[in-house]
Known about the structure:
DNA primase DNAg catalytic core, N-terminal domain, DNA Primase, Chain A, 4-stranded antiparallel sheet, binds zinc ion, globular, 3 domains, 15 strands, Dna Topoisomerase Vi A Subunit, Chain: A, domain 2, 5-stranded mixed sheet, alpha+beta
Amino acid sequence: MEIYHMSDIVSLLGLPYPPQGRTSYYIPCPCCDDKPRAKHLNINLQKDVFRCPRCGVYGGVFALYSLYTGVPVDKVRDVLNERLGTSVQTEKAKQKLEVPAIQEYPITDIDTRHATYEALLSLLTLAPDHRDNLLGRGLSQRDIDRLGYKTTPVVGTTAIAKQLQSQGHYLAGIPGFYRNESDNWVFVHERRGILIPVRNKDGLIQGLQIRRDNVNRRKFRWVSSAERKDGCKAEGWPHLAGPVRSVLVLTEGPMKADVIHALSGLAVLAVPGVNALTQLRSTLAELRDEGLTEIKTAFDMDFFTNCHVQNGYNSLLALLDEMGFQYGTYVWDPRYKGLDDYIWEHCLQRKRPK
Length: 354
Ligand SMILES: [Zn+2]
């Protein structure tokens, strides 16, 4: 039986090729990108998968072909056998798209990640504009210190890695760290922004997200060193703000969860997206063991306008149902984008001194 790769489909459908040396790249999403230069669909040639973080469409080689041609997924193999069947043609397609192999580290355990990330954050500071931004969302000075938000390092990323190593911290298998051409460890140089620790129920740091300055799209990104020498990819970890309680609010994004918790005192769990449910199931199972029985979903009001997101939300509710949780939805004034904005405007702004 023929084995097909993403590179075959990309050639066959005439989709854009990756920039030189890259195996993961973005092209316009056929489902949700309506603006001329928008590119949300990620294609990963090394892993033979695609995914749009905006609308949530994802899949493998056959699903990509199906998405563009309308051929049902279970018929794609036959169609490809017909179109690409001879090995000569497949070889040709492969030659056009040489996929370089990059050695990445598998992710290390959470205790090690937590220790390294804590040490990293302790070397960094929070810039005044970032502090003002967080205060403006309703976090207090004390909240900000407790949460450990910092400004991304813009220089000295090699020196930082060196210092962490000299303190005895592990860097291999920790998303964000990789080796440069001289084989020295480096922390990724990212666009300036706020580093947000993403924590588990015990407060341990799973990974870091960045809220990037001055961007409108994909504002929040994981700190990751995927596709770098000895790098490591971040996973879509959920984030718990507040102690485990019987009732939990479920929302999107760790910063939003931290703000809702700080403003309301509710326990809030952030999922990376309603289409990223893999890690959520195991997290919810752990929380259920500790007494969680009921979940209130509180996603932004503009979150359900897209069909793929709607499907994701339905899968989320199906998951909650299947796991035996009671669940309901927080509804608020739609003039406010998120529950955090609503609480801030209506309940707490006057009470809370900055
Ligand atoms: Zn999309």
